[in-house]
Fold each of these.
Amino acid sequence: MNDINKVGGYTCPFRSIRHIGDPFMLYDDAKNKFYMYCTGGKYQCWSSDTMEEWTSHGDSYLVSEKSFGEVNYWAPEVYKIGDTFYQVYSAARMIDGKKRHSIGIASSKNPTGPFTDIYDHPLFAPDYSIIDASLLFDGGKIYLYYSRDCSENYVNGKRTSQTFGIEIKSDFSGVIGEPVLLATPESPWELKSGDVVWNEGPCVFKRGETYYLLFTANYYASVHYCVGYATSKSPLGPFTKAKENPIVVGDGVYTSGTGHCNIAYSPDKSEIYMVYHSHFDVTNTTNPVADRTPCVDKIVFDKDGRMLVNGPFVAKQPFLSGVNGLYKKYNGITVNSSFGGDVSLLTDGAIVTDNVYEFMGDGVITLTFDMPTNLESVWIYSDKTSENAPRSVYAEINGIKTEVKNFVGELPFEPLVFAFDTENVSEVKLVFDGGEGAVLSEIITVEKR
């Protein structure tokens, strides 16, 4: 009865991509494709039109006479400037008998590579190991964020990975000024790995006048590996860690080791997503090679700018807005409910949340569009378990009633979907039987253009 297999969407984790770490995803408007780059080999690359299936392109980085790295090619990220793609990465070499990581920068005219180093020297190579490079382009300036590796860094007697930031030159030839410490592990949730502690895998993005720093704490092969964030009014801080941290944590049943994240935007730029990895096998979280697989989940913000991630999410979700001509309708939609209550909760973008819309008995939730739309589907999300779902629901559009559907999903937040593919829809009535009490977390409307 559920139309979920009739509509466009994707499911995470992407288990066809495994034995990787540190995923980064780029959408290239020119090719209308997503590109995924990961730790593994020399920065393996995959591409996809929709994120349903992925095509492997092998290693994206090519060792050349300019290369400084010898081993440990980790954490690639790729940015497009004009018609050139730039890959920032970390790799290790032997210096004075010690293996030391530095940050490199390579380029290519093709998103799948081969990427070759721009210079015969690293972008940044202090006299200690640094990993997990990420860039922010802001107001004509470029900032590099990285982790000072715990291999040589001791803080209060503990081996410690810390997050730093520094401005870099516009031609990527080097840095400007001195590094600034942005985050160090200090809260109880960041200290679950004993005598070695981490703030690693940083990235920074700007929303309005606020800079958001994402980072990951704890050992990458443990169930405790998870994501937090901090905010600032300046790209180099000071940053204040959020009270609601951590914001992405595996449940130990479907996901674990959720971390090393970055961000990606939907093709129409209306949505922002977190890209991160989780363990392929949640029962095997101590293997030092930690077989991992990528995940992509939507980021939402409340009215005060606090961040929430719809994840880790293992049920099917709609395509990112703009994929395959399908767009989530965020504007020009009015929601009314005969049940009363705060109907804004139904279209606030937040699915994985305790702030849900509660109701009981029989009633109607009506979606009214400001102009007729070509309606592809409506996705209705209840709660972590189907126990809190309505007894049933049917829809009515253009005077036609659908069959009655029941929430029977076995996965957390598994949606009930109505597939319409109907033109000139001005209104959707959803008629619920809420029984003695039910909850909804979100209603997502998808239109075809």
Note: The two ends are 26 Å apart (CA to CA).
Amino acid sequence: MRLMKCLWLTVLIFTVGKTFSQQPALHEFSVQQCIDYAEKNNAAVKNALLDVQLQQQQNRGITAAAYPQINGSFNTQYNPNVTVQTFPNFIGEATYGVLVAEGVKDGSGNPIKSPTDFGFIEASFGTKYTANVGVTLSQILFDGQVFVGLQARQTSIDYRLQSAEYTKTLVRTNISKIYYQLSLSKIQVQLVDANISRTDKLLSDTRELYKNGFKEKLDVDRTSVQLTNFQSQKQTTLNSVSNGYLGLKLLMGMPIQDSLVLTDSITAENIQQNALLLNEYKYEDRPDYRTLSLAGKLQEYNVRRYKLSRLPTASLNAGYSKLAQRNKYDFFSGAPWFTSSYVGLTVNVPIFSGFLRDANIKQAQLQLQQTNNSLNYLKLQIDEQVDSSIISFNNAIINLNNQKANVDLATQVYDLTKKKYESGLASTTDVSDAQADLTTAQSNYLIGLYSAALAKIDYLKATGKL
């Protein structure tokens, strides 16, 4: 029983601990904190950073080609049937040659005569068992392609780093736009709540006037419809905000079950603060420009690599081995092992490859030209994007100020119309029209506010300052 109680207690503690460990986290983030979180958790950013590590390992492989290559080997072989070879009987021929030259006579006292045909000898060379153990070394002395690869290592790392930075810029841009859109939704909800409050007050006043015989039932119904429309608008806005938060969490790499609270607000004042620094930008501030420039350097290395493939290559080779031959498998019985070794120099001189090298050089040169063309076109794009974003931002600020003034005016018109309505000098239709004008002005102001925020983000991205 004690054992069962301990077991149940352990399971309970584990279950409760796991439940608490899986509780959703609460994050109160500014836009910069959202960006910092995404740079650590966004899948595209993490993969881009892994590309840097992959390039580092590829560079290690390039470096390895310049190091000595040392290999050891051990080989043993059993020959059930040693190969038999047939060759002319030179032994008999040589023996008779000596006998004849020395004047040796046969048993009859006659000089020995050499036969004309000595035939063939069949003999096997080798043993039943052989063993060989050795080590070989090779070292590149000169290979132009390997040397170019060594020179291009740091440029390859820089290229991957700038590619990762460009990915971060895209993530920063998207997060900033979604963040400010959600911040704007707070204002939108506040405006809708204000409209609901005003309409609810108007409905209450209209009902009292209807009870006292000063208004018709139609006025009450019309105001009720207006209030319902505002309540539906609020629900639609809240649903859109919820979906926006889900999208922002996904982009940030944040667990969906976590809670996210946005602490930065969007106002006309902070949008215009330190807005534009006209003409103060450099192409090198853009990560995509730096990435493409490094791609051009890599293409230059590629051209050089293929050009150096025309030169001879030289390498040093050496080997040391021990060989043993036995008719019994007793290689470790103390019988001798025979040593062999060599040191050599290998020089490969390219003579003709079917014009392959020339084709590779031309292809690399054309690719370099394409990269340079893309770089020049990117400069034009950056100039266009900067000028366009400045124009868009200035127009957005003008429109934002106009819409803000329009909201103030529409609010005054509504307040005045409502006072007239309460005094019996205006109809429900007049109030509804004033409310509709105010709602339209508020909606246009929100659109103008978000357009100005987007224009500023686009400008910062265009100038490489985001």
Note: The two ends are 66 Å apart (CA to CA).
